[in-house]
Amino acid sequence: MITKSKKASFGKLIQSEYQKIFFLKFSKIFIGCLIIISLLMGLIFSLTTNVTQGKAITELSPMNIISANMLGIDVATIMLIIFTGMSISKEFSTKLVHVSLAVTPNRQKFFFGKFIIYLILSLLVSIIVTLLTCAAAELVLITNGLPTVSFFDPMFRQFVFGSMYMPVFYCLLTVAATFIFRSSGGAITFSLTIMFIPGLISMFSDTIQRLIIPILPVSALHSISGVAEKESFELLGISTSILLLLVWIVITSLIGIFQFERKDV
Question: Who's near 149: CB < 8 A, 6+ residues apart?
Answer without folding.
Answer: 62, 63, 66, 138, 141, 156
